[in-house]
Design brief:
Length: 270
């Protein structure tokens, strides 16, 4: 019996999307030899059927992952990013400044999705999907520490007591002032980036991405699986204006993502 060529092509593309890192359109073109317009029709058909999705942060196509109890952490994170992506895009359209989704993983926050490409802000080459962010100094890290379950916070802080952070500023904040900082974060309902944080493990004098940020947790009955932020160039000194204009939008986005996960609430009370 003769096979259906269009279906064969779709299945071939779907198999190529199996890897978690995703594939760019050019990569799919080289591997399948299909014309790019044909590939785009296939990809959009798969997307409409809920079988594929395109990340905002890196523009790569990935196979959709079912979110279910017992799924592997990498698959859960991909599904989390897939659910969050349209909410981050909607927030960027409203606030103009972009947002990131960061997921707590092994004592750091890991970038899972970002709307920075939509905003026109220059992306630092380091800041790609999978980039790991300081827990003590970053706004998402502080949001996670402030709102996560006590046992998880204690485990993270015990880890850093035994393995001091590479950034000297992180180590100093950890030893003095962190408790008061987290209390303030809970009271105001959002976290802020440390003014001495340059966005990486190095001291700000060595590496500085030039951004400022606020962040809120994605709250679920089982904990804080991740956080979202709003970022803007620090030189504009806009923190108070961003909080006034867009904190509620940011918190509402966190709640919407939490609801998409099927686990309830999110965003931290202001």
């Amino acid at each position: 019996m003769k096979s259906i060529r269009a279906l064969e092509r779709g299945l071939e593309v779907l198999r190529l999307l199996e890897q978690h890192e995703g594939r760019a359109l050019q990569d799919l073109h080289l591997r399948t030899t299909l014309p790019k317009p044909t590939l785009l029709r296939i990809l959009h058909t798969l997307e409409a059927a809920g079988l594929a999705w395109r990340a905002i942060g890196d523009g790569r196509w990935r196979r959709s992952v079912s979110l279910h109890i017992g799924s592997r952490p990498a698959e859960r994170n991909l599904r989390f990013a897939e659910l969050a992506a349209p909410h981050l895009a909607a927030l960027q359209r409203k606030a103009l400044w972009p947002s990131d989704l960061l997921i707590y993983d092994n004592f750091q926050m890991e970038l899972a999705e970002s709307s920075r490409r939509l905003s026109g802000l220059a992306m630092n080459p380091r800041y790609q999907i999978g980039f790991r962010v300081d827990l003590i100094l970053s706004a998402p890290g502080r949001a996670w520490l402030a709102f996560c379950p006590d046992a998880e916070r204690e485990a993270a802080l015990a880890h850093y007591a035994e393995h001091p952070p590479a950034n000297p500023l992180s180590a100093r904040v950890l030893k003095a002032g962190l408790d008061a900082l987290l209390t303030e974060t809970r009271q105001q309902g959002y976290a802020v980036r440390d003014p001495g944080f340059g966005g990486a493990e190095e001291d700000i004098s060595v590496f500085d991405d030039g951004f400022d940020a606020i962040a809120v947790p994605i709250l679920t009955p089982t904990g804080v699986p991740g956080c979202i932020n709003l970022v803007w160039p620090r030189r504009y000194k806009l923190r108070s204006k961003v909080v006034e204009a867009h904190l509620e939008d940011l918190q509402g986005t966190a709640r919407a993502i939490a609801e998409g996960l099927g686990e309830g609430r999110g965003g931290g009370g202001a």
